[in-house]
């Protein structure tokens, strides 16, 4: 199966889209290679693009005035990535999206996508299904933060990303869990012992 078929199959897993609509989407999309460390969305940037991650790992983080970073999300292939609130409101992004590894991404012009969605019910349905998935992911993350302790948040992260410790630096994992790197090391040792 060629890579384009894989991407089309991924989109069709949300909602069936026609060849004609695939062609329309490709007109507003660009496949890009991004080096690790590249910020694809910068803090306070008013975004106009949304992304589909094809390969690599991206993180989303919030940075405080003092420069401390808090990781909100990690994205693996195939994921939709972007500052949804900033895009919808046409306001500066409060979040930074950064490639942790070299990545392949489809960059989609969000506002042209919205124009296509207004003209075609199946594309509108695809957009709605993608938004539902994004919302459910955020809601699941919120439930984990509220209801699980750090050890169980780490276990859940490992369930979602089995080789997380090889893909993502420990200090980023610790930030995502809301703990220090030392606490993460203790949790990992305890889990290995159990």
Automatic annotation (TrEMBL):
InterPro entries: cNMP-bd_dom (IPR000595), cNMP-bd_dom_sf (IPR018490), RmlC-like_jellyroll (IPR014710)
Gene3D superfamilies noted in UniProt: Jelly Rolls
Boundaries of every Cyclic nucleotide-binding domain copy: 13-116
PROSITE patterns given in the database record: CNMP_BINDING_3 (PS50042)
Domain of life assignment: Bacteria
Name of protein: Crp/Fnr family transcriptional regulator
Native species: Flaviramulus multivorans
